[in-house]
Specification:
Blueprint (H helix, E strand, L loop, with lengths): L4 E9 L3 E2 L12 H14 L17 E4 L4 E9 L6 H21 L4 E2 L2 E8 L6 E7 L17
Antiparallel strand pairs: 1-4, 1-6, 2-5, 3-4, 6-7
């Protein structure tokens, strides 16, 4: 049977806001161009590219929206073990998202347009894993705890 988790992660690239320190060369970079560069790099990574292979069932939960510059993954009731090859691929994809968020966080010429977030909720009440990076990771997703009454 195994232990199941609810897993979500995502990245978004907002419009780029340049500051006074930006060079003319830097200003040639658009948010769309940045997103496509990031997506191309992810699809070319030896491990992460497996996330884009439609023959793996887990990948049906991955959505790419080029118009809104987002990549998101959401699945409930999923066996999320780091030694599974498909999970390793998705962990690498999220790792690349963090690298992009941190890369553009250090740029002097612009406000960071990249945000990413990861949440995994296990079966046990205290088993929650959250991480985020970039400009505004918590605008992407958050954990909600509530009570549902069924009477």
């Amino acid at each position: 049977m195994g232990y199941y988790s609810e897993v979500a992660y995502g990245i978004k690239v907002d419009d780029i806001v340049w500051n006074d320190q930006a060079t003319e060369e830097e200003k040639n970079l658009s948010a769309d161009g940045l997103f496509l560069l990031m997506l191309t790099e992810m699809q070319g990574d030896e491990v992460a590219k497996k996330c884009f292979d439609e023959t793996h069932e887990i990948n049906e939960y991955l959505t790419i929206d080029k118009e809104n510059r987002t990549i998101k993954f959401y699945a409930d009731s999923l066996k999320w073990y780091s030694d599974y090859k498909d999970v390793k691929a998705h962990e690498r994809l999220y790792e690349m998202m963090v690298e992009y968020a941190e890369l553009y966080d250090s740029k002097q010429g612009m406000e960071n347009p990249v945000s990413c977030s990861f949440i995994r909720i296990g079966e046990e009440i205290e088993d929650i894993e959250e991480s985020g990076s970039g400009f505004d990771p918590w605008s992407i997703m958050s954990v909600y705890r509530g009570i549902e009454m069924n009477i």
